[in-house]
Amino acid sequence: MATNKNAQLRYKALDKCFSNPYKKFFIDDLIAYCSQVLSEHYLEETTVSRRQILMDLGFMKSLAGYEAPIESYKDGRKTYYRYSEKDFSILKKPLNPSELNTLNEALETLSRMNSLPGFDWVNSLQTKLKSGLDLDKNNRQIISFEENEFLKGLGFLNVLYQYISQNQSAEITYKSFKSDAESQFTISPYYLKQYNNRWFLFGWNHQFGNIQNLALDRIINIENSNETFINNEIDFNDYFEDIIGVSNNLEENAVKISIKLSDNIIPYIISKPIHGSQKISGNILNLELKLNYELESLILSFGENIQVLEPFLLVEKIKERINKIKFID
Predict the structure, then answer these.
(1) pLDDT 10s digit of each residue in the chain, 329 long?
(2) Would 210 be classed as within a structural domain?
(3) Has residue 277 been placed in a domain?
(4) 66 with 93: CB under 8 angstroms?
(5) Which of 186, 205, 239 is the last residue of a domain?
(6) Is there a domain that residue 145 lies in?
(7) Are residues 88 and 103 in the same domain?
(8) Element containing residue 59 per DSSP (H, E)
(9) Which CATH number do you get for residue 228?
(10) What is this structure's pTM?
């Protein structure tokens, strides 16, 4: 069986069903769930046939597939399916030959893009994929990447990507850190951004009539909305031009920021600039940015190695947060 995108989505959906020890999945349940997963992925009604599900089961159980311990159990006249091994999942299995070939072909394509303008990110991605393939072959890891494998919400990443690419509005159930109650928003989704190992969705909130950013790890559920998609008129390169992180008050302007640096932190700041507006003169770091929570947090992360000189508002905010740290119970 061809290992195409549809097949991979079905295998993962079936794997989730077979891994659930608390529910009996009969053939009609498997058909319904796989159809739901494909429909949500492509944002259009997609139906999987009974014959296709049975073929998928056969492939997953085969040597060419995942050697999955799928067993059938009688419940009256009907039959349900489940893994006989409690902790088994195809996601824990090493890549099969077909998957390895597909990844190697992808690496070959990526290698041709390295020298193209705007594709600097390819080097990092290529190294990451190659390290995974080498680890699979040699069982020896020689490089690691900064990731949070326990981060919630990553399952929504591809779903939201499809919503954005299809110009489809979404009904999002959300629970912020500041509230114990869930909220529902109708969003026209525009943009996905990763910051500080977290993913954020930017879109137009239909109720409030403004741009909103939502952390994916706080999203509870996403469903199609019948409300008309509101077209994006924002250039997100400009949107992030004057800020650190993701918080942007569009009614505020960037301000001049002056920070005194210790001698030992200067080489670090030079090699890893805080922002594109950065200029260093002697021990003074000059920036032009909007003030936000992420900027404050970044400044505090340098500890005693930096001292904010101006603007006065930023100086006071940093003092206030330091005092809260000093007097915390």
Answers:
(1) 334 778 889 999 999 999 998 899 999 999 999 999 998 888 888 999 999 999 999 999 998 888 999 999 999 999 999 999 988 998 877 666 666 677 777 767 666 666 656 656 666 666 666 666 665 555 555 555 566 656 677 778 888 888 998 899 999 999 988 778 889 999 999 999 989 888 999 999 999 999 999 999 999 999 999 999 999 999 999 999 999 999 999 899 999 999 999 999 999 999 999 999 999 999 999 999 999 999 999 999 999 999 999 999 999 999 999 888 866 55
(2) yes
(3) yes
(4) yes
(5) 239
(6) no
(7) no
(8) helix 50-61
(9) 2.30.30
(10) 0.65
- Number of domain units in the chain: 4
Query: What is the rounded distance in angstroms from the CA atom of residue 54 to the CA atom of residue 116?
Result: 44
Domain range for 297: 255-326
**SS3 at position 85:** coil
Same domain, 74 and 134: no
End-to-end alpha-carbon separation of the chain, Å? 61
State whether 21 and 72 are in the same domain. yes
Burial class (CB in 10 A: 0-12, 13-18, 19+), 208: exposed
Strands 279-281 and 183-195: what pairing? unpaired
Comparing CA positions, the residue from 281, 42, 289 lying closest to residue 159 is 42
Instruction: Spell out the alpha helix ranges (H) of 249-311.
Output: 266-271, 293-301
- E strands along the chain, which residues? 25-26, 70-75, 78-83, 170-174, 183-195, 198-205, 210-215, 219-224, 255-261, 279-281, 284-289, 306-310
247: in domain: no
- Residue 317's SS3 state is helix
Residue 6 contacts by C-beta under 8 Å, 6 or more apart in sequence? 38
72 and 37 housed in the same domain: yes
Are residues 75 and 9 part of one domain?
yes
pLDDT given at position 63: 85
Determine the Cα angle at 188 with ends 186 and 191, to 5°: 130
Coil vs helix vs strand at 19: coil
- The one-letter code for the residue type at 267 is P
Under a CB-based contact definition with an 8 Å cutoff, are residues 294 and 245 in contact?
yes
Residues 122, 72 share a domain: no
